[in-house]
Task: structure prediction
Amino acid sequence: MAAKLSNLQPQKKAILIALCVSVVLMLAKFAAYFITHSNAILTDAAESIVNVLASSFAFYSIYLATLPKDENHPYGHGKVEFFSAFIEGVLIAIAGVIIILKSGYDLIYPRPIVQLFEGASIIGVTGVVNLIVGYYLINTGKNHKSITLEADGRHLLTDAITSGGLVVGIILIKLTEIFWLDSVISILLGLYILFSGYKLTRRSVGGLMDESNVDLVENIIDILQKNRKDPWIDVHNLRAQQYGADLHIDCHITLPYYFDLNRVHQEISEIDKTINGNADRKTELFIHTDPCLPACCNYCHMKECPVRQEDFRAEIKWTIENATKNLKHFDQ
Result:
């Protein structure tokens, strides 16, 4: 348990840094808005409120993810990270809608804009800071398999991109003196923010609904294929669920029917060691064993099988197509 908590300290540190930076940048952006009265800058400032709320919830969700399994949560608390990402995506989308409505109103009823270069300078600095912190969060999230950190990092990258576009737009407004461009740019950035919120929400809902992660399943099947042993006749009905940084896999393995319980336990333990020794995250396995049938003989590798009824003809390579079906391979 101590090792697990120690492993999660970088996640807490990263999200705490993001939270503190978000508060400072939010204040800077609102200062830029009060200086300029620019809707486009208000767009960026409003999104910063979302950054602060999202980082606060992300910090709490990472704390929950560190809690050990208990009677009410036998799989641990890792799925709270998907919920955290969902909340962040919804907040981003709401900010996008509000920005579009406010900018649409001001496009019809414009107001004076002043000191644009000063405002652009502040927004430019905040964009660079968000870019640095965003990449830091994404890298930390990938290293520690935290969807919460990745989501918060991608949110900050979105913020950095909108800040960059905003600076370009402000300079364009100043040079052309076409002030209605302020609201148009704000609406475009609002649409981009809305789309970013949708993508993040879609990914989190997929995780909450245990949507199949094809890349993850293919990786596990590839590990089994490369390290397969003769007694492992076939693997089928393989499914994977992600709970935060942990992975849970259940599958069926066909073994020779004459193996006793000790030998079956030995083979299952070997499969567990194979996956946990090669996968890039902690994996818990639930393996159901099936006895072989005479129809398995033609693809069974057992060299000195006392009950073989048919010669070995060819190996059936394990792929996502056959390993995920609930059928022995001769039935497929």
